[in-house]
Amino acid sequence: MPQRKKPFSGKAKKEQLKAKKQSKQNAPQEGYGARNRNRTVKPSGGDNEPRQIQKFHYCPSKDGRSDRNRYALQFYRESNAEIKVRKEEACKTIDVVPEEALEIDSKEYFPKELGFPKRPHWSYDISTEALEAREINYFNDYVNNIIEKFDLKNLGFFELNLETWRQLWRVLEMSDIVLHIVDIRFPAHMFPPSLYEYVTETLKKDFILVLNKIDLAPAPLVVAWKKYFEKNYPNLHIAMFTTLPGYNLVGTQVNRAGLQVRKRRGKFRLAAEGSQQLFEVCKSIVGDNLDISSWQNKIKEEMNLEYEDEEDEKVEIGETVEMKSVDTSFFEHEKYKNGVLTIGCLGQPNVGKSSLINAIMGRKVVSVSRTPGHTKHFQTIFLTPNVRLCDCPGLVFPSVTPKVLQVLMGSFPIAQLREPFTTVKFLGERLDLPNMLRIQHPEDDDTWCAMDICDGWAKKRGFLTAKAARLDSYRAANDLLRMALDGKICLCLRPPGYTNKKGKTDITS
Which of 66, 226, 252, 317 falls 20 to 30 Å from 436 in CA-CA distance? Predict the structure, then answer.
C-alpha cells in the first residue's frame, strides 16, 4: 500500500517559504553582465560580508519565454553591519540642524570621476553579438572602476541593470530635444552635470530642465532654483511645471500644523500654464524649422473643455499611446525626421514624469505609481501628429547622495527598505515633526529620537503588531516616509546662499 501523506501544518509551510527565500538570497546574484554574474564585492571597514545585488519588482513570466524582469531595478544590497549601525543612530537624540544645512550644490554630489555610462563606439561593420559583448564589457569596466575609486558606503544607490542604461542611450539618440525632469524639493540631487555636458556638448542637442511639483515649494525658492541653474548651466532651457495647479484641487491645501493636503478635482486635466511654458520653450528651439502650432491649438482646445467632477482613472490607449517593440540598439539620429519633433523625457524615479505626460495630454495616457521602476521600458506617445514624447524609465545615476535622502526622493522602494528609522531622523533634524504630526511623546520625555517619533505616530494611528499588540514602529516609519514622498510632509532643499538672501529683495539675483 502507498504510504499516506502526513498533514502539512501552516507553521511548516512558513518554514518552507522562509528556507526558499533564504536560498534565493544566498544564490549567485545576476549582476550587471555575464562576466560578473558570480561576482561579490567585499566592502571596506572590516565588514567581510559579501556584497550582493538587490532586485525589485520581479514577477513570474506568463508564457515562460518572455523576460518580464529584464528591466527590473538593481541596486547594491546594504550589509547587515551597515543596517545595525543605522538602527543605533535612530535611537540617538535628534539634534536640529541649522537652515544652512539645507543648502546644496549639485556638483558636490556628482563627482566628475563618476560620470555615467555611455554607449560604446558603434559601427554597421560590427555584428549585433559583438556589439552586445562590447557594451557588457564596457559596463562591467565602468562599474569596476567606480568600485575601485569610491567606498561603496559613501556612494548612493545607482542602477546596475545594463538593459535600463541601454534604454537611456536609445532615448538620447532618438530625441531632438532632451527633457530632464526634477523634483523642485531635491533638484540638485537629481540633475547630473555629466548628463548636461554630454547632451549639450557631445550630442549637440537642446536640453530642457523642468522644475516639477512647484506647488510643493514656496515661490521664492522656485525662483531661486531657476536662477541657480541658469547661472551654473548657461545652455539650459528651464521650464516650471505642476500637475496639480490650484484649479485642479479641492479643499484646503495646508492644515494648521503645516502638513500638505492636496486632493485632485475629478479626472486628469490639462495643466495649462506648464504646458504653455513647455510649448514656448520648444517653439523657441525649433523656430521656423518645423511647424508645431498643432500643439498650441491642442492647449487652447483643452482649456475650453468643460470637465465633470468625477473620477476617471482609466488609461487611454489606442492611437494616443503607441507602445514600441523593445529595441535598445543604436539609433542613427535624423533631426525632425518625417516632420516630427521627438522629445525625450528623462528623470529619476518619482520625479513625476508619467504625471507630467498625462497633464500635458489632458488625460491619463500613462499609468502612475509611487513605486520606483513602475515604467519598465520606454514608450512613444504622440502629443499631436507631429510632436511625440519618448518616455524613458526612471534611472538613478551614480552619485554620492546620502541613501536616506534617496529614500525621500523616491529612488528606492520604501516597501523594500530594511531600516527606515534613520530616514525619519533625517526628516526630524530638519522639520519639527512632533508639532507637525501633533503627537505626544510615548514616554512623556522632553527629548525626541527617531524611534520616539515613530512610536508616537503608531500610537496616534493605532498601528499595533499582530501578536504582541505592541506599537508597530516599523509600519509607522514607512507611513511617515510615504507621507514625505507624497508631499504631505514637505522638505525642500535650497540652493547655495539662499538662507542669507531669504526675505531680501535681491533673492532672485
Answer: 226
